[in-house]
Amino acid sequence: MKRVVPRVMGRSSRSDTDGSPGWGPAAAAAGPALRAVGLTRTYGEDESLVWAVDGVDLDVPAGQTLAVTGPSGCGKSTLLQLLGGLDRPSEGEVWLGGRRIDHLGERALARLRRRSVGFVFQAHHLMHELSAAQNVELPALLAGASPRAARHRAAELLHQVGLAHRARHLPSELSGGQRQRVAIARALANDPLVVLADEPTGNLDSAATHDILRLFDELRAAGQTLVVVTHDERVAATADRVVSMRDGTLADDTRLDGNRGRRHGHGGTGLGGTGLGALLSWED
Ligand SMILES: Nc1ncnc2c1ncn2[C@@H]1O[C@H](COP(=O)(O)OP(=O)(O)OP(=O)(O)O)[C@@H](O)[C@H]1O
Ligand SMILES: [Mg+2]
């Protein structure tokens, strides 16, 4: 697999066709890539009221990879969807690249998601009737890139995730791990400010998980801001920082030690002394 080099560090050449102020490197440098302030999302009402996310304050600096862990139902997916503008908070604020996004209108929010957020889900959500290359081209085309530029970018990304030889294949002709690598390439198509991944290895076997771990490591090394929700200790071990959630709140926030080594085997992750094992000890 080639090194994945998202163009996150050199964003200045990107044109901004919606004319909205405050994007690009200056905005990113002005504050964290992502910020949540008092972020709250409730579902239902009265006795069926659920506090899925309950007053979360979180800053994710540009270039940080953050793993979000915690037991099933603690609010991880809800938090991620709020951060990416897929859902709206009941209370609180979400800031992306120095711009408040939680009260944007639907169209502005959709445009922002397309251009500034790359999503990777547990199920790849590729378009079944489109080839791998066409799937990766699509976000760029939707964001207004020329067909030629979109094709070029897709070819580059598929090469970087080691799938140049599968560019013309349909998702049904790819393995689960290959599909997820296409999904990651697609998430990077518009050089997003942040990549948000929800259980990206949840459906994968150990070997395919290993490929995704290598990609995440490459993204981290390239300075891509990445938030990944995961139950997998090996995935969390690729992060700079791990937060664990309990009942909609942040229960723990740990910066991982940079000396622990980042080599992944299919077995252990060499996490001795990082405290990560303890953080993940709810898993059984
Ligand atoms: N659309 C909804 N309507 C009502 N309650 C919801 C809805 N979506 C989520 N919830 C509730 O909000 C809480 C948080 O759900 P969420 O999906 O964020 O958890 P999670 O941490 O991602 O869990 P998992 O690890 O199982 O994916 C849960 O109690 C869930 O039942
Ligand atoms: Mg979830």
UniProtKB/TrEMBL annotation:
Q: Which CDD domains match?
A: ABC_MJ0796_LolCDE_FtsE
| Any one Pfam family match given in the protein's UniProt record, by short name | ABC_tran
Q: Region Disordered: which residues?
A: 1-27, 251-272
**Residues annotated as domain ABC transporter:** 34-272
Q: Does the keyword DNA-binding apply?
A: no
Instruction: Fetch the InterPro entries from UniProt.
Output: AAA+_ATPase, ABC_transporter-like_ATP-bd, ABC_transporter-like_CS, ABC_transpr_LolD-like, MacB-like_ATP-bd, P-loop_NTPase
What keywords were assigned to this record?
A: ATP-binding, Nucleotide-binding, Transport
Q: Which domain of life is it from?
A: Bacteria
List the PANTHER family. Answer: IMPORT ATP-BINDING PROTEIN
Name this protein carries in UniProt: ABC transporter domain-containing protein
